[in-house]
Amino acid sequence: MFDGIELWVLVLLCAAAFSAGLIDAMVGGGGLIQIPALFGLLPSQGHATLLGTNKISSVVGTTFAAYKYARAIQVPWNAVLPATVMALIGAFCGAYIVTQVSTEVLRLMLPLLLFAVAIYTFLRKDLGSVHAPKLDKNRERFFGACVGLAIGFYDGFFGPGTGSFLMVAFVVFFGFDFLAATAGAKMVNVACNLASLAWFAPAGHVIVALGLLMAVFNLAGARVGAGLAIRKGAGFVRKALLTVVFLLILRTSYDSYWPYVEAWVGV
Fold first, then answer.
1. CB neighbours of 258 closer than 8 A, spacing ≥ 6?
2. pLDDT 10s per residue in the chain (267 long)?
């Protein structure tokens, strides 16, 4: 059922899925936990298969988080709906392209992008504390579509940090507070995950049983994370975002640049 995967590997993958669901439901970035776990613990599998398996798990937790936020918070649909629709297209294209080319350039750029997000969020103390939309309805729809297409493509092509990037985009460009931005990001994330699966699954790039098992734990983590964010409010989400982005910078920097350091030292 699990393609000969050992029990201890399954346990670690389930723990990673729970942690990813919890973090992702609050501030995004769950892929930076779940994807390295899959790649590190299943090195013999192809990268497209691991990314596809990650999507099975992620889509369950993200869908639950989206439902939880939609019940508790007024979602800014005027921007979120076009972003969600265009994210479907972007993510499907990205998922196709990742099966054709290397993701090495994005892997090297990711720590730098996350560092820029962290610095901007830290310096803007009031960022996301008040919900004050700054675009008219037509521009909200247009820029929502642009954000959805761009970040959707990124999610399908590579993925880590998508939720965090979406949150910051909704706060910075649209003037949403962190809770509204998180709610919107979850809706777009669901579309990204479904679109990516629409390519990965028919192409055979999934381990279905493993993805479903991890989905159970991802869902449990998402339940805890969404509840915490809704109860604690925008200030808590901002602090959690900064903490997670800092940890993601460390993790992605190690993954991206340490092999080059080792090669240089070895020479």
1. none
2. 666 778 888 999 999 999 989 988 887 778 778 888 888 888 888 878 888 898 899 899 999 999 989 888 888 999 999 999 999 999 888 888 877 777 677 677 778 877 887 787 777 777 667 778 888 899 999 999 999 999 999 887 877 778 788 888 999 899 998 888 988 999 998 988 888 888 888 888 888 899 999 999 999 999 998 888 888 887 888 788 788 778 778 877 887 787 777 778 765
How far apart CA 104 and CA 83 sit, in angstroms, is 27
Q: Which amino acid appears at position 169 of this protein?
A: A
Residue that is written with structure tokens 């709610």 in the block: 183
Give yes or no for a contact between 9 and 42, defined as CB atoms under 8 angstroms apart: yes
The three-class DSSP label of residue 48 is helix
Q: Which of 63, 57, 47 is nearest to 95 (CA)?
A: 47
How far is residue 263's CA from residue 9's CA, in Å, rounded to a whole number?
Answer: 28
Identify the CA nearest to 163 among candidates 141, 145, 187. 187
